[in-house]
Design goal:
Blueprint (H helix, E strand, L loop, with lengths): L21 H11 L7 H4 L3 E5 L14 H16 L9 H18 L12 H11 L20 H16 L9 H13 L6 E3 L2 E3 L1 H9 L6 E5 L9 E3 L10 E4 L2 H13 L4 E5 L6 E2 L4 E2 L11 H5 L13 H9 L7 E10 L5 E6 L11 E5 H7 E7 L5 H7 L4
Parallel strand pairs: 4-6, 9-12
Antiparallel strand pairs: 1-10, 2-3, 4-13, 5-6, 7-10, 7-13, 8-9, 10-11, 11-12
């Protein structure tokens, strides 16, 4: 099989979700990317255990579209797993369609639901199922004079337009507001081609999804873990970016990593959504873990050494996880793509995670995330149902 990841073996060898707002995403991207550590890479020695083929790292620019980049990267890896030649799927076509649907929900809910750039991993599957897909070459979304995504102006105009619609100054909604809203989005991102040519053949977004990408949207499941809900049943994940109020499966905390481990061993990658605001998450160092001591309680020396090689971690419980979620310490900050498993020089396991902030950190766009971090800070994971362990699938009534 062809190797579509152009990432070199790193060190010894070497994914919601979306942001709650575009501004928050801009802050994280601008403050965390384009940086490399002074010593982290020399202090960690990683050896790959599993490294699943994936497509090159992308850059979401100044947009809160990590959910689209990460879940479309996931779909590209699904194409590879299915023996197909992967295509770069237009992340902004997915986002554009989600913005349309989000605007409708915003008006129906009288403005009492999230707007902004943010989204969840399931949005990519839902938009794929309803609108099909485009290759990026047919729809870049760059229709406003910049080389990379920059959505703040569009978002501000959309917010003002929809706020006026919700005020309902005519006493009843006109049939024109959806056209006006769509026109703003298309002015910035470009009108959607109803027909296009790819590799000499004509397609529509629907036929391209069916004939080229070829996944079945119904084969994918989203899973979370919260103690307040019954295990092995579905619940609505109450995070701002779940604007569609989709339901997720609920499993025990330790089963999150059991599911990811099983999926990776069987050749499935996993979409990841979670919180990246913790001191133990460092993009430039390419490492995410849960320090054994709270950052505020650390000495100056301990703070300085936080990423100087492997450190002891805090043990995570379901009560801790629930409390962090309830107190907004775990929020739906970001989406990334889990593509493998690695071990450090002490034998500790880390997930290899692909980001969408460009190849700008120590590990050229990838990072290493401990299982404790995943247990503590995950809001949801997305994967093919075939990657779920059979015993857990049976409890969830997932037909494999």
């Amino acid at each position: 099989m062809k190797k579509y990841s152009f990432r070199p073996l790193l060190a010894a060898s070497l994914l919601f979700a979306g942001m709650q707002s575009g501004l928050a995403q801009d802050y994280l991207v601008n403050s965390l990317k384009n940086n490399k550590s002074e010593n982290s890479k020399e202090s960690f020695v990683f050896n790959d255990v599993i490294n699943i083929e994936n497509t090159p790292v992308k850059n979401q620019g100044s947009s809160g579209t990590c959910w689209s980049y990460s879940a479309n990267s996931f779909l590209e890896s699904e194409m590879i797993r299915m023996g197909k030649e992967p295509v770069e799927i237009s992340q902004i076509y997915t986002a554009r369609n989600a913005y349309i649907e989000k605007g409708k929900n915003y008006v129906r809910m009288h403005g009492a639901i999230a707007l902004g750039d943010g989204g969840a991993l399931h949005d990519v599957i839902n938009m794929y199922k309803k609108y099909g897909a485009l290759p990026r070459e047919a729809y870049t979304g760059l229709n406003y004079g910049t080389e990379n995504n920059k959505f703040a102006e569009m978002a501000s105009i959309n917010e003002g337009l929809l706020a006026a619609v919700v005020k309902n100054p005519n006493g009843e909604l006109s049939p024109a507001w959806e056209k006006a809203y769509t026109a703003v989005i298309d002015s910035y991102l470009g009108e959607v081609p109803q027909n296009f040519t790819y590799k000499g053949k004509k397609y529509t977004p629907q036929t391209f999804a069916k004939e080229v990408i070829g996944i079945n949207a119904d084969d994918y499941v989203e899973i979370s873990s919260l103690k307040e809900h019954p295990y092995y049943e579905k619940f609505v994940l109450m995070v701002p970016d779940n604007w569609s109020l989709d339901m997720v499966y609920n499993v025990k905390m330790n089963e999150l990593t059991d599911i990811i481990d099983n999926a990776l061993k069987k050749g499935y990658t996993v979409g990841w959504a979670g919180d990246v605001s913790e001191k133990g998450f460092s993009w430039k160092n390419g490492v995410a873990y849960v320090p054994a001591k709270e950052f505020k309680d650390m000495t100056a020396e301990e703070k300085e050494n936080i990423f100087k090689g492997p450190q002891k971690e805090m043990e995570i419980t379901e009560d801790m996880r629930q409390k962090a979620f309830d107190n907004y310490n775990t929020t739906d900050d970001h989406g990334m793509h889990i593509v493998g498993l690695s071990k450090d020089q002490n034998g500790k396991e880390y997930y290899i995670v692909k980001n969408s902030w460009g190849a700008s950190n120590d590990y050229q766009g990838y990072m290493y995330m401990t299982k404790n971090f995943v247990k503590y800070k995950t809001t949801a994971i997305l994967l093919h149902k075939g990657g779920v362990p059979k015993d857990i699938a049976k409890k969830l009534n997932i037909n494999q």
